[in-house]
Amino acid sequence: MDSLQQRSSTVQEPPGAVPAYRPTPPPAWQPRTDPGPLLPDAEPLRVLGTDAVADADPALLLRLYAELIRGRRYNTQATALTKQGRLAVYPSTTGQEACEVAAALALEERDWLFPSYRDTLAAVARGLDPVQALTLLRGDWHTGYDPREHRIAPLCTPLATQLPHAVGLAHAARLKGDDVVALAMVGDGGTSEGDFHEALNFAAVWQAPVVFFVQNNGFAISVPLAKQTAAPSLAHKAVGYGMPGRLVDGNDAVAVHQVLTEAVARARRGGGPTLVEAITYRIDAHTNADDATRYRAAGEVETWRAHDPILILERELTERGLLDEDGRRAAAEAAETMAAELRERMNADPVLDPMELFSHVYAEQTTQLREQAAQLRAELEAEGEA
Amino acid sequence: MTTATTGPTAAKAAKAAGAAGKPKPATMAQALQRAMRDAMAEDPTVHVMGEDVGTLGGVFRVTDGLAKEFGEDRCTDTPLAEAGILGAAVGMAMYGLRPVVEMQFDAFAYPAFEQLISHVAKMRNRTRGAMPMPIVIRVPYGGGIGGVEHHSDSSEAYYMATPGLHVVTPATVEDAYGLLRAAIASDDPVVFLEPKRLYWSKSDWSPEAPAPVEPIGKAVVRRRGTGATLITYGPSVPVCLEAAEAAQAEGWDLEVVDLRSLVPFDDETVCASVRRTGRAVVVHESTGFAGPGAEIAARVMERCFHHLEAPVLRVAGFDIPYPPPMLERHHLPGVDRVLDAVARLQWEAQS
Ligand SMILES: Cc1ncc(C[n+]2csc(CCOP(=O)(O)OP(=O)(O)O)c2C)c(N)n1
Fold first, then answer.
1. Least enclosed by CB within 10 Å: which of A14, A95, A182, A346?
2. What is the ipTM of this complex?
3. Do B90 and A168 touch (CB under 8 A)?
């Protein structure tokens, strides 16, 4: 200690020494504007069961109800089709129907939906033919519809990669002067991907009319949210990009519809992108190929069943006298008709033309592909003769 | 430089240049830039985007002046994120634009591979033809400029292995213009590989002269010969031409085929040449193992076996990560290595 002091005291201050460093802001630094307005509320927005529900339009409530019933039936029917071998796989959205349906209803016809592989129901609720929506999962073709005709991008399997597409499309539309909005859907696991980050950053820098909609259903296959992120919420991530983050109860169809409709309207009037996180729960396993009992307790599922999106909306409608036994039966019957038709059409064997394998690789077939097409044609002819 | 395209204005400009003496030689970088400018002037849906392409005009100045002339909405400095750039281009193409994307250097295109392979290359196919992807991905590639690590990769084999992509690489100033125009006009995605060590190569081709658009998928015979065919592309074309000149002293008369397009592959031109000469060497600077030459040699062998006097040989870069600049001359196939291979073609068998 002594020697240290001694040594330091022997250090000579040079004449005209620079004054000691005092922290000041670096020259080019400008404090950012208050990020407060970008932060999500601490609690997810709820409308059902609160005073706010009094303002909800009864027609909208009934519409959401009918769509939820149809959506639930669609989920159970598609799951049943996997058991019959008619679908290779089906990632169910049972329990998440409010998110799917509200996503579709928040958009105008000219807007675009960018769904993930899980969001067949959103595409169907937007008006896509259920059979066309299922071709990816059935295996007869990757995308069974013309995306431009329905303004629904192909159901996207690589996680989060559809998000930059939504940004690019929205940006292009704005450059053209069209007031088109893109709504891009992603799961909680998908928010860890680099494409999620790049898409949000591009959207904010370009002020692109995009709404990012995260369905936080608790798990990415088996991995819970706590192992996916250390952020306070996924909606908080918005702040870092300079866009508002919103948290909503994903099982409250009215709240989800409200938040998404506001975000879409904001984007449409040039207000830029929004990140919306819906807190929901995946009642079924990840897909029919997954064993959910390995990573979650039955009690947890039961808690969420009590907060079922249909149950809580039905309670509201019944209390208000908007829905009675007849109304419930009518909705159920309409859903049953849809399911029966879906079953019947999916039970018919699809007719496939193997020669189409070579049709859509390039605008014009290369010599190499023409040669391979000739080879396959010869094989098919030989098969026909055998 | 004027903005003259082909047509009367260009003809006038060419005449003016002629009157003032020989037109100034143009570089490959200028030809590429003019290709983009002409395409942008003709078609308002063409958008150039990437890192530093706007104000700076690109690190190689290939996009110089485009932002000034067409505005930042048409030539856009994007955030620094390759997957984001290409992913956004996918969405823009979905809405009817024709994005021309610059990847700053070969090895920095890798973050965009997911978008390239899963979406750009497959979108037409996934949507049964409903959604083409008219995107050009410009990638400065290859070595020979003393670049530091990650600035000299030859990534063509990765692109070639992906169905749905066209892979094109010019070797001359004229082709740089003609092929880039064709790439931008293509309704399919084109990975446009720019041999960066040829950016400053020159040609008497005037930047104002009328310039033809070259169809994608056609190889060209750069030098006629009878003894053996050198099959090559991009940065190795000048090497092979030089080797062919040198070979004359040995009494070897070499033909040089410049592939120009790796996908689609011009079997016809290549095989016609090999059938004439009976011998072939594939020359490229990317690695040999599972490299482009493996595919090319196999194709030639399958199609020309009975015409071959010798096995098809490959002269490629070593199977090593791209070396540090002070060693790159040992890695890159030069004239001597090409001549050694030609010597190994068992000339005595000929007579
Ligand atoms: C890039 C990529 N990596 C891995 C997978 C495999 N995979 C499919 S779904 C999934 C979990 C996704 O979880 P989340 O984003 O939360 O969506 P959810 O399935 O819950 O709707 C994984 C890992 C994939 N599809 N894409």
1. A14
2. 0.89
3. yes
